[in-house]
Structures are given as C-alpha cells and as structure tokens.
Design brief:
heterodimer, A: mainly alpha, MetI-like fold, disordered C terminus, B: mainly alpha, two-stranded antiparallel sheet, 2 strands, disordered N terminus
Chain lengths: 271, 319
C-alpha cells in the first residue's frame, strides 16, 4: 500500500483536483478574452479578431459611470454601518457571557443563512407597509443587514485571541477605558476589521438579489449587469464591464487574505 | 463582593479624571451598561428592523387575495397555503428541491478531490494557491459568473465550438434529445441551469469540506491501509464518515442558495419556474403578496428541517 510515502498524491487525485480548479477558473478567464473581441453581435468563439475599442466605448457610457458611482456609494456606506454594528456585536459577545448570547450569533448569521430573496421581499414589503419610498438608503439598509456578518466573523475570531491580560495591564498602568481601546484593543483588531470591511465592501458591491427588491429606479452596477443579461443592448460593453468588475473585486479579496494570513501572531495571545 | 475586589476597583477608578475618565469608570463598575450600549444599535437594526420585516412577511402569508378585486383581504386564513398545494405550484416546489438536491450531490463529488488534495497533500506555496484558487471564484461577481456561462453555452460559443472541433456534435445532439434534461440547446435546458448552479456554489462546498478533512489525522488513513483495507474501503469506512460534518456544512450552503435563487434559472434554463422566480413574480406584477409570502415559507421550513438534521450530525463544528 502507499502508506509509507503518503506525501505523494495518487495521479487520479491530482488530475481530479486540477480539473476541479480549472472548472472554477476557466469561465472567468473566458470573459477576459471576450472583452477584446471584435465581434459585437454574437458570442462567437474563437473571437475573429482582437481590439481595444470597447474599452473606449465603455468609458464614454454615462449609464455605466452612474451605476458604478451608485454601487461605490452604497458599498461604502453599508461597509461603514456594518463595521460599526459588527464590531459592537463581536465585542459584546466575546467580552462577556450573557443571556441570549447564542441568539445574537444566530441573529447576525440569519440574513445570509436565509435565501436572499426572503430578506429582499421582507424588507420590500416592510418598506411598503411603512410607506418608505425607495432610495439609496433603502438599498443601504438591505446591504448593511447582510454585511454585518462578515465583519462580525472576522472581529469575533480576533477578539477571541486577544488576551484579556493586555487590557488589564493597560488599566493597571492608569489608562482609562477609551485610552485602552484606542492604544491596546484597536491596534490588535485593526487588521481583522480592515479585512472584514473589505469583504463587506466586496459583498455589497456585488449584491443583486436583495438590491433588485430594495431599489427603486436607481441602478447599481449589478442591476445594470442584470439588465444587460436579460435584455442585451451592447454586448461588448457588457464584456468589458464584466472584466473590470472581476478585477475590482479581486483586489479587496487579495488584500483581505494578506491582512488575515498572519493573524495568529497577535500580541499577548500566549496569555 | 469581597473587600479585595472593591479596593482594586477603587484603585483603578482613582486613575480616571475628566469626563472620559468618569464614563470609563462607570463602565468598569457597571459592565452591564457598557454591554447594553454596545448591543443596542445592532439589536435595533437586526432584531427590530430585520426580524420585524421577516415577521411582517410571515403574517402576510396568512392573508389572502380577493380573486375579483385583486385586493388583499386582511382576514386570517390558511387559504393561501392551500394554494401552494395546487399541482402547478407543487411542481415548482418539487422542481426546485430536486434541483437543489442534485446540485448538492454533484458539488460534493466535484469538490471532494480539490478539498482532499488541499487538505492532505498541498503544502506551503501550493496550500496558499489552493486557498486563493477557491476564494477568488467564491468572491468574484455572481452576475459575471452567470454571464460567463451565457458565453460558454451560447450557440456560437466555446462549448459548441469544442464539440464541432472534436466531431462529437452528434453526442451533444443525442444528449439534448433526452426528454427531461435536454432541450433546444444547452442554454435553455435544465442541464444548463444545473451547470451554472454547480459552478456558482462549488466554492461554498470546497471550503467546509477542506476544513473537515484537515482534521482527519493522517495516521488513521495509514492505519486503515496497514490493516489491509483497499483505498476504496479506507475512503468508504474511515475518510467519509469523518468528513461527513464538513460535507453537511457545505451542503447547507449549496442547498439553501439553490432553493432561494431566482436569477440563474431566469437567465439560463427552460422557462419553467423555480421557487425564487415564483416569489418574485407573485410580489411584482401580480401583486399577490400573500402567495409570495407563503412561497418564501417553503425554503425556510425546508432549511429549518435541514439545519436541525445537520445539527444532530454535528455539522456546525465544521463551519
């Protein structure tokens, strides 16, 4: 049997794993090729020729710009709200045991555990009942609700590793609660907050299911994409926008990965 | 409270001065106040606004719509739930649940080699590569991923090109001729819908599976093969039972996400409805909020049952 050299993977496993990874990546890479195609009516493969023309066309489209602007605005506000709420929740849950602590974790996870359409319809009908007109703020309300969980998850993991003795030492040395938070707690949780914030931003920037239900006439970038998918107007522009969206979402993900990669080295975690 | 603790508190509080000091003293003496202050904003947001909306939606499922005027009749009734059971609606529910089950099963099969290799053989640089290799597709834009499949499955797209190139077009045509899973082309068949679902949710299966597989001690597998088990027996009797919590954790995602999705089947697939589409169309043009609300209860009940089963199998330790 192969128990004696177990670090060598069987060939079949290697091939299957490689195929799995390829399956996850090739479709996205195809979009990169299509962004440069000269063909503008069909999805012809292989592309008959390559051009940079569509980047200029997309650049001059005001509807793309206004959708992008709205998406950035919504994602920024939702991220800030989610960071505040998520950090508060994480701090409360990790610093003390209280009645209903488990329920709070569940409450935070619920918006992404339930299918998006339920969250969307529930908020939409609530807006209708309360006579709240759809606006940027109704979109933000929906987004912040499901963004809390990523900030919360990141922060709770870090708070758990943050030793209580550090806080006590700071208090013993004469710092008050605010000073301790500012100079001891915040530096230790900062990277995980930043990572959580970036993931929240990416989540909000990309969200479409809740957004279609909580937006009125406004179009975020995903809503613009969805409309192009259902009723295509200018396919090459969609290709270009799709490629740019992929690139833009990769950056925060890579950054979040590098920020939390060395998360084990938190000061005082040895207790 | 004993004297020592009081002295310690007195010593600490004396350090504070000014308003900030006094407030932080208060928090130290009465931690409950700080806790309440920290919990109030998130609880107002999630507990009142969000849960409130969910409950309001649930309440509306007990109203009914007047067939003649199209107005909502605010009288508690189970009539709307009875409407879920008419054949057309039952079909929608069955179609969605079977799709979710098949997608879940397929993603277990495709995800296993990736997760197993990453957990057991990949080291250092390769480990990071596998991690990012799953994280990037997980986080890249949902609509862009669907769009990519529209490109792939298009009539003049890469898949048809590939079949032409390899002279296997007849194989594709034979497959499309199969009644239920076939259709005019892949992009308007259940197979197309299935492929996109599988593609979009696959990373959600890989990550918890990998987490569970990493916790399986390597010497268990060695012991099994030392005792004469074939690789298949080791897989069946040792690896799979130990990895099962991770599989269940991943299946929660794939199952729940498929149940609630309404965009994928709208863009790629036959025009037959899924639960999400039914909800969307009932609340939209039809204005039948009660029926839409009753439809949303279906995935919640299914997922509630599913989560309860998963909890019993210990799946939450693998999340």
């Amino acid at each position: 049997m192969r128990s004696d050299h177990e670090t060598r993977a069987p060939m079949a496993l290697k091939i299957a794993a490689a195929c799995g990874l390829l399956f996850m990546h090739v479709p996205i890479l195809l979009i990169f090729v299509y962004a440069f195609t000269t063909e503008d009516k069909t999805f012809q493969w292989p592309p008959p020729g390559y051009t940079l023309k569509w980047f200029a066309v997309a650049w001059n489209r005001p509807d793309v710009w206004s959708a992008l602007q709205l998406s950035l605005k919504v994602a920024s506000i939702s991220t800030i709200v989610a960071m505040v709420l998520g950090t508060l929740c994480a701090a409360a849950v990790s610093r003390s045991k209280f009645f209903g602590r488990e329920a709070i974790s569940l409450l935070v996870i619920l918006p992404i555990a339930l299918p998006g359409i339920i969250t969307g319809i529930a908020l939409r009908s609530a807006f209708n009942i309360a006579d709240i007109p759809f606006s940027v703020w109704t979109i933000v309300l929906g987004h912040a609700t499901f963004c809390v969980v990523v900030v919360y998850n990141n922060a709770v993991a870090r708070f758990r590793r943050l030793s209580g003795s550090l806080v006590e030492a700071s208090m013993d040395l004469g710092a008050n609660g605010f000073q301790t938070f500012r100079h001891v707690v915040l530096p230790n949780i900062a990277t995980s907050l930043l990572a959580g914030g970036m993931l929240a931003f990416a989540l909000s920037f990309d969200e479409v299911i809740v957004t279609t239900l909580t937006a009125g006439q406004q179009a975020t970038l995903p809503i613009w994409m969805l409309e192009e998918l259902v009723r295509p107007r200018q396919r090459p522009v969609t290709n270009v926008v799709a490629m740019i969206v992929v690139l833009v979402t990769f950056l925060p993900i890579l950054a979040a990965y590098y920020l939390t990669r060395d998360g084990d080295q938190v000061a005082g975690q040895g207790k | 409270m004993n004297n020592g603790a009081n002295n310690r508190r007195a010593a600490v509080t004396s350090a504070g001065s000014g308003l900030a000091g006094q407030i932080s003293d208060l928090f130290w003496r009465k931690p409950v106040i700080l806790l309440l202050l920290m919990l109030t904003p998130p609880l107002l947001w999630l507990g009142v606004v969000y849960i409130g909306s969910l409950l309001a939606l649930l309440a509306q499922s007990f109203f009914s719509i007047d067939e003649f005027s199209g107005l909502i009749n605010y009288q508690l009734t189970l009539k709307t739930y009875a409407e879920l059971l008419i054949p057309a609606n039952l079909d929608i529910i069955l179609r969605t649940v079977s799709m979710a089950a098949i997608v879940t099963l397929a993603s277990v099969i495709v995800a296993f080699p990736v997760a197993f290799y990453a957990a057991r053989y990949a080291r250092g640089r390769w480990k990071a590569l596998f991690y990012l290799g799953v994280m990037l597709p997980l986080w890249s834009s949902y609509l862009v991923k669907i769009y990519a499949w529209k490109l792939i499955l298009a009539k003049e797209g890469i898949l048809n090109w590939f079949f032409e190139l390899t002279h296997l077009k007849w194989l594709l045509d034979a497959y499309l001729a199969i009644p239920l899973i076939g259709g005019n082309s892949l992009s308007v068949s259940y197979t197309g819908t299935f492929l996109v679902f599988l593609y979009v949710w696959l990373p959600f299966m890989v990550l918890p599976m990998q987490a569970a597989l990493e916790r399986v001690p390597a010497n268990f597998l060695e012991a099994s093969s030392d005792l004469g088990a074939t690789p298949w027996q080791t897989f069946r009797n040792v690896l799979l039972p130990l990895a099962l919590p991770g599989v269940i954790a991943g299946s929660i995602f794939t199952f729940s996400l498929t149940l609630g999705d309404y965009i994928i089947p709208q863009i790629i697939g036959s025009s037959r409805l899924f639960i999400g589409q039914a909800v969307y169309s009932h609340q939209g043009t039809a204005g039948n909020i009660p029926l839409a609300a009753a439809f949303t209860v279906v995935p919640v009940v299914i997922m509630g049952f599913y989560l309860w089963m998963a909890k019993r199998k210990g799946a939450f330790d693998a999340l």
